[in-house]
Design goal:
single chain; alpha+beta; 14-stranded mixed beta sheet; two-stranded antiparallel ribbon
Length: 257
């Protein structure tokens, strides 16, 4: 996979100091109703206006690996801005809102400017702004208040499973029993032998917010295993932010088919 392909994939998907606490065994978890688990999850939803963060990211598959440093600026429910560098050299920038995705890459001088319908057709997925935002903040990518779920104890977590999963498709949510943020969310497609997992091994408490310290993204199919590891190096909340973004002239537009 060429360098630019990996950089583009990393930017689009991530659009993923405290010691880990000892986990509870499944038998030690208090029995809670689905309603209570979901309620607790949203009571602990991220409640700041903005995030200013610096991230270390590492992409790897069976052929190669890539490390990038990323600056992130996020205004909740409005804007996510990412700027990626390698060895201190700017390589790509991304600006996304609920209706638009803009991206450019400096090495091959290309850009994308479009909506989620076109992007999802190309990626063969169902991304939107709020799913990406929730992924970065440790929240369920689906709105749990709109679905029906069953609950059980599994992997020292509260596991929520939709009552109506397709025969070939399943999504699982594993809630942390202490802060009711996500320990993990998993999407499985048995027909295609694919599994996509987003895990949150650590949370830091920053200004009364439980915020992910690390995000581990794994995509597995019958031929390959891809991993993206994200580590927040520094995080600030409610800082006044700007989102500078301008596609350079003479860059070639990426045509998605």
């Amino acid at each position: 996979m060429r360098y630019i392909t990996k950089a583009t994939l990393l930017i689009l998907i991530t659009l993923t100091a405290c010691k880990s606490k000892k986990t509870l065994s499944d038998s030690a978890l208090e029995s809670l109703s689905v309603k209570k688990i979901v309620s607790n999850h949203y009571e602990n939803e991220f409640d700041k206006k903005t995030v200013y963060a610096r991230l270390n990211t590492r992409y790897s598959d069976k052929r190669s690996s890539l490390k990038l440093s990323i600056k992130m600026r996020l205004e909740k429910d409005k804007t996510i801005w990412l700027s990626a560098t390698k060895l201190g050299i700017p390589v790509a920038k991304l600006l996304i809102t609920p209706t638009r995705v803009q991206y450019y890459e400096k090495i091959q001088r290309v850009y994308f400017d479009g909506d989620y319908a076109l992007l999802n057709k190309w990626l063969k997925t169902e991304l939107d702004f709020f799913k990406l935002q929730n992924l970065l903040l440790g929240q369920a990518v689906n709105d749990l208040k709109k679905g029906k779920y069953t609950a059980e104890s599994a992997q020292a977590s509260y596991q929520l499973t939709p009552r109506k999963n397709g025969d070939l498709y399943k999504i699982l949510f594993f809630m942390n029993p202490e802060n009711f943020k996500l320990n993990k969310q998993v999407v499985r497609d048995t027909e295609k032998q694919q599994e996509f997992t987003v895990a949150y091994p650590n949370y830091s408490q920053i200004e009364e917010e439980h915020f992910p310290q690390k995000i581990l993204i794994t995509a597995v199919d019958s031929k390959n295993r891809t991993q993206i590891n994200i580590e927040y190096r520094s995080v600030e909340f409610d800082r006044e932010l700007t989102f500078p973004f301008s596609i350079p002239s003479k860059y070639k537009e990426i045509k998605l088919k």
